[in-house]
Amino acid sequence: MSDTDPQADIRVALKEGEEEYRKRERSFMMYRIRKSPLSMIGIAIVMVFILIAIAAPLICPPNQPDPFRMPKTFSRLPLPPSKEHPFGTTGPVTYGDVFYGVIWGTRYSLMLAFSITAICFSVGLMVGVIAGYYGGLIDDILMRIVDLFYSLPWLVVMMVILIALGKRGFWTMVIAYSILAWPGYSRIVRGEVLRVKNELYVEAAKAIGLTDLQIILRHVLPNSIYTVVIMASMRLGTIVLSTSSLGFLGLGFNPGTAEWGIIISEGRNWLLQGSWWIAVFPGIFIFFFVLGWQLLGDAFRDILDPKSRRGV
Questions:
Q1: Contact at 8 Å (CB) between 142 and 183?
Q2: From CA 297, how far away is CA 310, in angstroms rounded?
Q3: What is the pLDDT along the chain (312 residues), one digit of tens a residue?
Q4: Out of 59, 117, 155, 280, which residue is the most buried by the measure of CB atoms under 10 Å away?
Q5: Reported pTM
Q6: Cα(94)–Cα(88) distance, rounded to whole angstroms?
């Protein structure tokens, strides 16, 4: 090491130590994933849905001009599953093909889940880091805003927002859902930042003169983001469950959209007439989609939980 610049030597030592620590963490995570049956099942289920979403144009040629509108098959009653319509049709009023709806609905649901998660994750991360790192009055103001959002009745406010936005569609749902969902991320991030900012390596980074931004990006975020990543992975499934529930209630999406909740809503009136396929097939897709992300999130939680790491 150099005798002329001790601060540079400290920076190099800190960087080398962090890189070695992260390398060991990645190796440990991969080992735990391979040893966890639930994580492998979750990964397999999620990968199947991702492959279906990617291959949707090959499985079902897109309906032009809007591929997320189910093609119409006119009939007096819903048609049962057949060679031409593997999952049957919805019948009046939308006359949609259920197989097309669930395949393109997979892509639609993944797009919804990732878009909402990206917005909530980004906003929640920013608010949580600022509140936790700086504390004081800034923390009080930001957390009171978070508490205000938590106090709102979720379903009622969601309905009001969707009605106020007026136009139904993908981005209407993304905006409405994101407005209410980001506070959960910020509270988790704040708690982790409060824990990390008092660690010795953060104090050492302050001592050698790093700026707040450098400390946050290099030391605080990489060591406090794991919990919120687990939360995000588990919420990907619940987001789709929630948006499908809103679609079932007739909120946010137009009839005939290739979205699982809308299809189930269209099939509820036909259940007593024996047209079970309209609700059952999209319901199966929702079940396994949520299950896959929950299993994957549980696996990540077990991998990163300090108690499980110590064998407690």
A1: no
A2: 20
A3: 445 566 676 667 767 666 776 677 667 667 766 777 777 888 899 999 999 999 999 999 998 888 999 988 888 888 899 988 999 998 887 888 999 999 999 999 999 999 999 999 999 999 999 999 998 899 999 999 999 998 888 888 888 888 888 788 899 999 999 999 999 899 999 988 988 888 888 888 888 888 888 888 888 888 888 788 888 888 899 999 999 988 888 888 888 899 999 999 888 888 888 889 999 999 999 999 999 998 888 777 766 655 455 444
A4: 117
A5: 0.84
A6: 13
Read off the tokens for 116.
Answer: 């909402």
* Contact yes or no for 116/182 (Cβ under 8 A): no
Residue 190 sits at φ, ψ, to 5 deg, of -60, -45
Query: Residue 191: is it exposed, middle or buried by C-beta count within 10 angstroms (0-12/13-18/19+)?
Result: middle
Using DSSP, state whether 159 is helix, strand or coil: helix
Helix, coil or strand: residue 304: helix
d(CA 205, CA 280): 56
The token pair at 114 is 């990732």
- CATH number for 18-309 (one of 1.10.10.10, 2.40.320.10, 1.10.530.10, 1.10.3720.10): it is 1.10.3720.10
Domain spans in the chain, listed from the N-terminal domain onward: 18-309
Give how far Cα 216 sits from Cα of 64, 125, 221, 227, Å.
47, 11, 6, 16
Specify the 3-state DSSP secondary structure of 8: helix
> 122 near 181, Cβ under 8 Å?
no
Distance from chain centroid for Cα 253: 19
**DSSP assignment letter at 69:** B
Q: Which residues contact 235 (CB under 8 A, 6 or more apart)?
A: 117, 120, 181, 184
Contacts 24+ apart (CB under 8 A), 72-75: 72/96, 73/97
